Amino acid sequence: MKVTVLGTGSWGTALAQVLADNGNDVILWGISDEEVDDINENHRNSRYFDTKINEKLSATKDINAVSDSDVLLAAVPTMALESVLIQAAEKVEKPVIVINVAKGFHPVSHERLSVVIRRIMPAEKTKAVVSLIGPSHAEEVILRLVTCINAVSDDMEAAETVQKLFSNDYFRVYRNDDVIGAEVGVAVKNIIALASGILEGIGQGDNARAALMTRGLAEMTRFGTALGGREETYLGLDGVGDLIVTCTSRHSRNFMAGLKIGQEGAAAFFRDNKKTVEGVAACKVVYDEAKKRGIEMPITEQIYKVLYENKPPVEAARSLMARDLKPESASVYQKH
Hints:
Elements lengths: L1 E5 L3 H12 L3 E5 L3 H10 L15 E3 L10 E4 L3 H14 L4 E5 L12 H8 L5 E8 L4 H4 L5 E6 L3 H11 L4 E6 L2 H23 L4 H21 L10 H12 L4 H12 L1 H7 L5 H16 L4 H11 L4 H9 L15
Parallel strand pairs: 1-2, 1-4, 2-3, 4-5, 5-6, 7-8
Antiparallel strand pairs: 6-7
Helix pairs in contact: 3-4, 7-8, 7-9, 7-10, 7-12, 8-9, 10-11, 12-13, 13-14
């Protein structure tokens, strides 16, 4: 299959290598001269990885590369997804499967990303939309370390196509048709990962982070089921799986952002940060939607106050500990 990967960042490069390892015709499209030249001339993407990549990979800055593609893989930050797909849609010449790998919501409309894709891509040029999401770090995939994620779609034939396209002896793909549940889960876990980093930054330990992940899973499930997702999805790869890997690893941008916030405060983080940290924007979307829908989201609320109201992280942690006491079984999935 001819696959164009939109984005020459770490995740786009890692997934492009999986596809190239599987014998597909893959090209990466990007806007950075440095990254495109590095891939083409040195078989590296040194901005992100200290290792050589599959020599069959090539890159371009010419958006016309998408014209004869069978598959478009959108590996750009959430905030750039709309503008990049508008460019690509003009050049696509036949119906394509569009694969999204970003984890978040549209920052203005609050749409899930598969909804954004369907809104932008003309129906006559879109064979199906699939989200390829789950617990994964590009830094491990590029080294061909074992990874399992989901192909999520309401079109199971397309999900199976994507599953077969990527699966090999180190990269295993499952299928899931709970589009709402999965897309919400992998977005909300970034907020909990920020909180996890903050806890470490303020000097808390494993007990606190275990409690955070458990209550974060309850919060994720409560929000996702209120939006129409299925409860069982949150016990799978796009729920607890992605939550674990993002809350516990220093490969996680959200965890590392939280760590800096915990140590130095949100103002210092915003002043110095130059990376895309999806949980920051997702927190505002989820906070606003939860308030509108009457969904109790105490962790998200406190992270929102840290990020957008300059609440000291230590005080946010104290606020969570000072909440009314209640039985766990009565508070996991209910709105209140």
